[in-house]
Amino acid sequence: MRAESQYCSYSHFSSMLQRGGFDGWIWMFNIEVYFDDSGTHAESPIAVAACYAATKTQWDEFVRNWDDARREEGFDVFHMADFAAKPERGIKPFCDWSPEKRHRKWR
Question: Which of 65, 55, 4, 1 shows the shortest CA–CA distance to 29?
Fold first, then answer.
């Protein structure tokens, strides 16, 4: 399992600008946006898209919290479809989780 999240080009870029004294420039890039989709394959009857936007500080906090949760609960990658699958499907590590643990992560 990874100890920390993967390299983030945005964090690298914004830190580089900040070290160079370009604080006004940083404000232009202060919002980071992530998009995700599901059901965009031809067989799907519906498609869903989501967008998450936050400041660099908020994303840094989210990443720290997410890394803590991954370490504490023993998973590396989280896919909702795998998490929601019935335990009988055998998708690790979620198929081994108790109902209490699943509920704790779902909230």
Answer: 55
